[in-house]
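#struct-queue
[09:14] JT: dropping the first one here, sequence first, then the structure tokens:
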Amino acid sequence: MSVRIRLARPEEAELVREIEVSAGETFRGSVHAHVLDHPPPRAEVYAALAAEGLLLLAEQHRQAIGFAACEPFADALHLKELAVRYERQGRGIGRALVEAVAGEARRRGLPAVTLTTFLDLPWNAPWYVRRGFVELTAGTLGERLREELAAEAGRGLSARCAMRLTL
């Protein structure tokens, strides 16, 4: 079953929020189930990303089933959020989205993709390692990602790391 990745349109922002809520069900019963207590960003946030060409949507049979939200920086395209509908997980959709994000980074002339994620969940850091991402250490983290991890810790997110995929 093929997956089509395309740029999301601003008017699809609410749909993206629905995908994020569905994807969050993966956390139910995990040590990080508390993330379910936090609603996804407002639709306006996703609409703005879509308007800038920074929101990728995965479709199968014309149904939106996943997305990747990004933010460009001088050193990398930062993957802010990757989500696949709960019932569609484990079928290569996330992998296709990561490949599309890497392609977008290359199109923008950026040398890498960065992200932050949970260290201790098999579908987070270990999953990204299998896709070529490397966990950054304190010495290689850089100010931008150090601040991102600190902000996440301030929101109650623990056991987080920053990762980089060099293109």
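[09:21] JT: and here's the second one, same format:
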Amino acid sequence: MHIPSLKDQVSPEEWQLRVDLAACYRLVAAYGWSDLVFTHISARLPGPEHHFLINPYGLMFDEITASSLVKVDQQCNKVIDSPFPVNPAGFVIHSAVHAAREDVQCVLHTHTRAGVAVSAQRCGVLPLSQQSTFVLASLAYHDYEGVAFRDEEKPRLQADMGHANFLMLRNHGLLTVGKSIADAFLSMYTFEATCQIQLAAQAGGELVHVNPAIVSGVAESMRVQTGGLGGAFVWPSLIRKLDRMDESYKS
């Protein structure tokens, strides 16, 4: 599939954001978190226009490139012409989060088996692992209201999320946000690992919970150890890994 490059048609800042977001899509595919074409990762572009980048609906995540990403406004109208459609229903959740969280550049949403499974458990995330303590330091829940295509759900989702960086969508999946694409990705890596570990632990013997005092103090530990789930430490190594696999996402 040939997609003309947009590199000379957008600002250097937008192009770098496109490359990073395309890389994020490829990494989500590489780690097995994609759900065919049915989830989304969005990124806010700098500037007062409130424009966003999102995936072209119908492309698999391992097909997405910097130039194929679609620029839309808050109503999901295309800002730059694209031959690809955008899924307005998929943008409802993302637009709600972006509208309420000016501190957020990236919103990442998945439907993994482990994530959906834990989202269907009444207990939600349990303090069973080191990974879970990072999640529990900034976790919120939103009850399932059906397929998210109604704008009337947005205020409830925004209120439930508040200032959390991890959101468990009950019976639906996982959502993370970050001040950068790198941070949102690393948060999802931690969230997904938390859910996989929990399901594995529940299949075994008696569970041992992390001391609540440790959970309550983990926010500072997270900042010291990883720069606040700092994608700045991990992201360059992920990009090198991706480049060894396939550099076509940069086109």
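[09:30] RK: nice, looked through the second one.
[09:31] RK: Residues 7-250 form a domain with the L-fuculose-1-phosphate Aldolase fold (CATH 3.40.225.10).
[09:31] JT: good to know. The first strand starts at residue 41 and ends at 44.
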